[in-house]
Structure formats: C-alpha cells, structure tokens
Amino acid sequence: xxxxxxxxxxxxxxxxxxxxxxxxxxxxxxxxxxxxxxxxxxxxxxxxxxxxxxxxxxxxxxxxxxxxxxxxxxxxxxxxxxxxxxxxxxxxxxxxxxxxxxxxxxxxxxxxxxxxxxxxxxxxxxxxxxxxxxxxxxxxxxxxxxxxxxxxxxxxxxxxxxxxxxxxxxxxxxxxxxxxxxxxxxxxxxxxxxxxxxxxxxxxxxxxxxxxxxxxxxxxxxxxxxxxxxxxxxxxxxxxxxxxxxxxxxxxxxxxxxxxxxxxxxxxxxxxxxxxxxxxxxxxxxxxxxxxxxxxxxxxxxxxxxxxxxxxxxxxxxxxxxxxxxxxxxxxxxxxxxxxxxxxxxxxxxxxxxxxxxxxxxxxxxxxxxxxxxxxxxxxxxxxxxxxxxxxxxxxxxxxxxxxxxxxxxxxxxxxxxxxxxxxxxxxxxxxxxxxxxxxxxxxxxxxxxxxxxxxxxxxxxxxxxxxxxxxxxxxxxxxxxxxxxxxxxxxxxxxxxxxxxxxxxxxxxxxxxxxxxxxxxxxxxxxxxxxxxxxxxxxxxxxxxxxxxxxxxxxxxxxxxxxxxxxxxxxxxxxxxxxxxxxxxxxxxxxxxxxxxxxxxxxxxxxxxxxxxxxxxxxxxxxxxxxxxxxxxxxxxxxxxxxxxxxxxxxxxxxxxxxxxxxxxxxxxxxxxxxxxxxxxxxxxxxxxxxxxxxxxxxxxxxxxxxxxxxxxxxxxxxxxxxxxxxxxxxxxxxxxxxxxxxxxxxxxxxxxxxxxxxxxxxxxxxxxxxxxxxxxxxxxxxxxxxxxxxxxxxxxxxxxxxxxxxxxxxxxxxxxxxxxxxxxxxxxxxxxxxxxxxxxxxxxxxxxxxxxxxxxxxxxxxxxxxxxxxxxxxxxxxxxxxxxxx
Length: 888
Prior knowledge:
Elements: H1 2-19, E1 21-27, E2 29-30, E3 40-43, E4 49-51, E5 57-63, E6 67-74, E7 77-85, E8 91-94, E9 97-98, H2 138-141, E10 145-146, E11 156-157, E12 165-169, E13 172-173, E14 196-202, E15 216-222, E16 229-235, E17 238-246, E18 252-261, H3 264-267, E19 272-276, E20 279-290, E21 295-320, E22 325-354, E23 357-385, E24 397-428, E25 432-457, E26 460-462, E27 486-517, E28 520-523, E29 526-529, E30 533-552, E31 557-569, E32 572-575, E33 581-597, E34 618-633, E35 636-652, E36 655-658, E37 661-664, E38 670-686, E39 689-704, E40 709-713, E41 732-736, E42 740-742, E43 749-758, E44 773-782, E45 810-822, E46 839-847, E47 855-862, E48 868-874, E49 879-887
Parallel strand pairs: 1-8, 2-9, 12-15
Antiparallel strand pairs: 1-5, 3-4, 3-6, 6-7, 10-11, 12-13, 14-15, 16-17, 16-49, 17-18, 18-20, 19-21, 20-21, 21-22, 22-23, 23-24, 24-25, 25-26, 25-27, 27-30, 28-29, 30-31, 31-33, 32-33, 33-34, 34-35, 35-38, 36-37, 38-39, 39-42, 39-43, 40-41, 43-44, 44-45, 45-46, 46-49, 47-48
C-alpha cells in the first residue's frame, strides 16, 4: 500500500498535466509539395519549441483549453502563424503550406501569381546613408540604374534619361520639376520614405498595365496603418517626422508626414562659394476609410514648397592634366532664385464585390507653379599653373590664358495643371488573371520663357557682331546690333487631352513532374539511401499578354503598344548537405514589347521656345531575357538576378544634358539603340542584415538624320582646328557623316554596393553592448559619360567619332555609423520614461568619404589662342552629418 501511495504521489502531477494538454501533429510542405525540413515551431508565450524532421513531419504537445498561437518559420519561407484552441486530450492534425520567399527574413514582395518582369526587393528599416532622396536607394539596388548626381532624385535606366521613367505612388503618376536646372535647386522628391510600405521596379519589359514611357517603372505603395506609431529624425540637413494610426472601430486610418530640409550646410561644399538660402518642405497624408465590407475609400494629398536662393560670390576650379594644369577663377555679382510650389490630390474608391474581383475608380489633380529668376554677372580669369616642382611658384599662376565676363538673365515661369479620371479593374479566374484600365487626362500649361546671355571673351562680345569700323561705305549702319550668345523669348498657353487604356491577361499553367531518386549520399560517415524515393511537384509556366492604346489631341496621334512576357519555373531537386531532398529555386523569364512615349511639354518645345505641332511619340522595342537563381552559401540564402536586353528606338528626339536640365531639339529626327547586361546579387552576408551589389555593362548610341558637317583644309593640307593650327585660311572642305554617336547617357560600366555590418554579440560586456553599433556602406562607381552636345558635332575635332570627350569616372563612397540606444533587442525598461520608444539611435554619416571631385557638367570658355576649354562643374566634397532618429 505504501508503494502504491508513493507511485500515485509521484505520477499524479504528470497525470494532471497530461489531462490539461493536447497534441498537435502534421506535416509542412511548400506550395508544390516538397517537405520543409528543420522548420522552427514555437508556441508563443511558452517554452514549447520543436522542429520538423527530414520528411517535414512534426508531433508535439501543446496546452489545452485555452487559445494558443503557434508560429511556423523557416529561413527560406514566409512565416505562418495559426491560432488554435484545442480540447483536453485532442489530437489535431494540421498540414500548413509554406510559400517560398525570395530572401530569408528580408521584406520582399514575392512574385504574385501571374506577375513577371517587374520586380524589386522591398527594403524596410534599412539605415541607408543618403542626403535625403528616396530614389538614392535605387541607385545601388535597382538593376540598370545609373546616377551621377547625389543632389538630384533623377536617375537613368539602360541608356534612357531621367524623364523616361514612370513613377507611381498608389497608382498616381508623379512628375519631376520642369524648370530645375541644377540638382541643388531641385528640392525634395515626392516620395516620403516614412510612408512607404513596398516598392516594385522594372528596368524594362514591364507589362501593359503600366504607362507609356520608354525606360522603366517605379511602383510605390504607401502603407495602411494597423496601429498607432510615429517617428522623428533630425540632422544637420533637416527634420523628418510622421504619425500614423487607426480608429477604434478599424474604419479610419491615416499616415501623415512632414519634411523640412535646408541644404545650406551641404552646398557649402561646392566650388562656387556664396550665400546659399535653400528651403525645402512638404506635407503629405494618406487617409483610408472602409465604408462597408466591399467599399474602401482613400485620399492621397501633398503640398510641397521648394525655394532655392543663392548669391554667388566667387569660384575657383582647378582642372587639366599633368601636361597642362589650369585654374578657372570667377568673381560673381547678382542673385538666383528658383521656386517650385506643388499641390497633389487624389481620391480613390475601391469596390471588391467578391474575393476574385476588384474595381478601382480614381480622380486626381496635380498643379505646379514654378519660377526661375536670375541676374548673374561674372568676371573670369583662365590661368595656366606652373607644373615644374623645382620652381618656387610651383602650383601658382604661370601666365594668363584669357580674361572675360558673362551675364546671365532669366525670368521664366511655368504653371501646369494635370487632371485625370481613371478606372482599373481585375478579375481572377482559376488559371488566369484579367486586368483592364482606362484613363482620361487633361493638361493645361502656361509657359513664359524669357532668358538671354552673352559672353565677353578677352574684351570682345562672343559671338562678335559685324561692325563698320574702317569702312567708308556711306550706307553702313551707324550702330551695331548686340548679338547674344543665347536668347529665348516665348509665351505658350496650351490645353490638350490624352486618353489611354489597356487590357492584359495572365495565364498560369502547372505541369506535374515526378523524379525517382536512386542515389546514396554519405553524411558524417552515415550512408543515406534514397532508393525508390519519388519526389513530385509542379513546374510552372506563366504567360502574360497585353495591349495599350493612347490618343493625344495635340497632334491627333493614336498609338498602340502590344507587350508579352513569359516566365518559366522548372522543377529541380537535389540532395543538400543535411542529406535531405530539396528544391532548387530557379525562374527564367523573357519579355518583348513596344513602348511609346507621347511627348510632354518640354519635349515638343524647341530651343527658341516655339512648339512643334507635328511631334510624334518616341518609340522603343524592348527585348529582355533574364532569370533569378537562389542558392545557399555560408548557411544563408542568396539571390542572383541576371538580365540581358536590347532596345531598338526610332522617332527619337535628340537632346543635350546640362546638369539636370534637358534641352530637347523637338524633332523626331534620330534613331538609337541600347544593349547590355545587368547583374545583381543580394543576401545576408552578415546574419540579419541585408546587403547587395549590382553590375551593369551597357552601350547606347544615336544616329541623327542629316547631321552632315564639313571640315576645312588650309594650303598645307592640314585640317583647320581653331587654337591648334597656325594657318587658318581655308582652301578646301570635306563633308563628314558621323553616323552613330554615343548618347549623353552612354556609361559603359556601373557598379553599386550596399553593405551592412554589426559588431559581434560575443563582444558584449556589462558596460558596452557592442551589437548596438552598426555600420552601413554605400559605394557607387560609374564610368564617364559623353559631354559632346549636338551643336558641337560640327566641330572638326570630332571628325573621328571614336574620339568623343567624356567626363571622369563618378566614384562616391558614403558611410554611416549607427549607435542604438533602444531597439527590438534592447527595449527600454518598463519603468522608464522612454518605455514607449521602439527605437532610439544616433548616426554619424560621412558623405563622399574619399573626397572625390565628381563632375556633373561643363562650362565652355574660349581663350586668347582660340581654343575652347571645358570647365568642370563639380559636386559636393566630403561632409559629415549627425542624425538623431526616434520611432514609437
């Protein structure tokens, strides 16, 4: 009896515990039926934890009689959470399906079923060292993206210019400033990083549901909040803040953000010294209201005021080579004021009658008023420096090459209003996804252009006017006309309507495949047999076909643009290092499509300010082949993306690039092409921190119709080149046809790198938590771009078009050091005043760490010897920024 009582005493708690438990068992597989091996299974708020075996099975005990939350996670799959309430003694069989995600624990929008070529990782919470433009993220993370100006939000994609890129925010098209002539005057970009939920990007071959531009599409989605939160950051460059929240009844939500930025500190690092007074600010809000189960309404609003004012004082630029070192010195007088005021509002109603159908209706309006005013006078000196290090005046002025002056005047203004009504719809079927849309757009543009300039080179106006000095002709003019180097005076007021629509469908085909494994593998001296093991799954084909149509009332042009794409995901198995059968993730894709860009205002405004009523849409045909391959290295997953492409373009409108201003010639008189290869590798080199690298090799050229020019020969038979030949009397001439020349965006090689690192946790002590220190490195390298203008093609120095002058390479390194005081790993104490703060950190950022003098454009000056010199306009030098960030 004593033994029986003792046994009851010992086992009674265990028996009572068993009576309060239940059993959860099952099997984890992915979407094609492959077992998910060594997945983590955790019951939250308990110490219960287990793993799936090599066949994906699990079986464990869980508490009964109360609601529990079980989390299933794996480094290669999306985390799945399930809430259960089991009865005492119940055995629950649960077989969840895991869906593969492209990168582990990295916020990625995986390809939606039917989506194909337009894809980019979505970066959240990355401490990216940037001057303030959201688009800086694309300059290293987007394949095919190139930028040579850290002061601008503009970027070039695969040989196109920055006005050939589509940008959407919640399906609303975003426009760049029209009058901005320099990156420092451009102001804030529209996109506010505090409001972004995800982004998608395509460098070419995008679907018909996107609009009518030649190069790329950036699709940004602002988030719909699910709880109250906010952030605040302040630095030497400005202040950013945002608030978000949702009502108690879950019907209303909002996210509102404000930014204020003054780049005065930053602009002090330019060659031109002066009194800079930049002031950039904006206010944005995104409000949603759910009126019923099927209706959701939203409003996106933005107000932005960007004002740039500078009173330049002096500039000193040293340039040249070891054979000829030069210095360009200017003393200024005058002022420049550039101002952009922008208002955007968009109302959207979304109706979802069922799970497979979505109808969206949007009304939006965009208004911008832009002014550009300047009167700037400059007196310049062009000197050659002493190059002999043995002389006392080494590095000083050896002799003067020329003096001169210039005067620039402008009173430009532009008032533009764009209103749109649009509808988008989609309908899902069993094996297809149908999309359609239509948009009506009305443009009102009032443009007043008044600008002129002249140059006084060595005491003479250039270009020099004809005069009557030394002539005895009584009919000679008693006065002289002043020939201005550049003079434009025009006033345009236009109202046009645009109509566009699209229809596309995506078909998905899955084909089942089985593979019989009869191999063996030795793991840790143990032989694992796979005889008669059959693995089954599906290989998939996704085909998307669509067509766009566009009509513009200005030139009565109707265009049609068909686009198709194909994605193939084969079924590939292999035996991994643990001896388990796993699937290789490989996706291959191809796309071909016609992309036609109807001209917007500046593209059909000639250099003299007149409009070309016969302008046609530029056209480009994209051929794209690419693939994504995910591989496992260093116990982590990495993704390699590769795309090769060819773009054939006709009806091209030539243009010159001057900083961020494009000067179009408003004629469809050229054809062009662009071809290359883009590669991107991203993954977590350091566990928990995302890094990536991109490499692009590209060539783009243009052939302008009837661009014949002549070279002149002297009596010695030499080609006359002003400033180089002594005998400049022409006795003969020869015609040249340049043919294909590099486009202004022809940058052969570009490389971008973003790397994150953190101090090892093993270094932590009681006094110092070393893993609270992080470092972020951003590296960009681009080869030089041509700076030959269309007007310079007639220069005989470029008769051999293989000799085209190029800028130096663009090389920039930005680095940020971050110290976390409060984070998810180290939350504030519950009794602290900062208990509601989720993150508190301070950052030390060093921009242009190497102090490289990058060139963005050139000024051309003639010296007394008749030679023309290109004076480089350089970007910012090394500066240090301190930033405080708080999130709650």
